[in-house]
Amino acid sequence: MNSHRRHLLLRQAAGYIELGELLTDGDGPLPENACKLLRRALVTLAELPDPSRSGTVASLLEGRALRALGNLAAAVVPLQRVAESAPEQLEAWLGLGWCYKRLGRLGDAITALRTGLEAAPSQPLLLYNLACYHSLAGDVTAAVDHLTKAISIDDQFRDLTGAERDFDPIRSDPRFVAVTHVVV
User: Fold this and answer.
1) How many other β-carbons are positioned within 10 Å of the β-carbon of residue 8?
2) Tens-digit pLDDT profile for the chain (184 aa)?
3) 87, 126, 145, 169: most buried by Cβ count inside 10 Å?
4) Domains in the chain, please, with CATH?
């Protein structure tokens, strides 16, 4: 298969995934038209030859499609492949954390994001999500530490904490309150 055809298949799969994700409501059930688009993305990716199918771009797309379809355990496999081969790919670490959290594997979610931070130590989105996971795990000190770092890099993360349910377990802790409230 020539490189133009591979590139075209990857672009098509990415397009199907983007459209499928646009049709999702977040917390509600996945609409059938979104499922069809996401499954079409997987079929398109399967048309790639073996070396390309397991490459970084294809694996990341496969992980996104599987995650969006709710097949979280299957999504972990390609996302882990990306994380190992291209640790600078932030989306792989975030996807792994997201899947592990929803699979009830909070310890694995924390480990994935910590490992991602080794590749991108100043990435506020990783820090913020790690703070969320530590909050859910009941580790206030680690949650506040990571949240403080995220906010110091990008203050918009402070605004997100008010609606983030992952912080409910530590919301009344004075350390959390001190980090999330701006004193004027």
Assistant:
1) 12
2) 688 899 999 999 999 999 999 988 766 788 999 999 999 999 999 999 888 888 999 999 999 999 999 999 999 999 999 999 999 999 999 999 999 999 999 999 999 999 999 998 889 999 999 999 999 999 999 999 999 999 999 999 999 999 999 999 999 999 999 999 865 4
3) 126
4) 1-105 (1.25.40.10), 122-184 (no CATH)
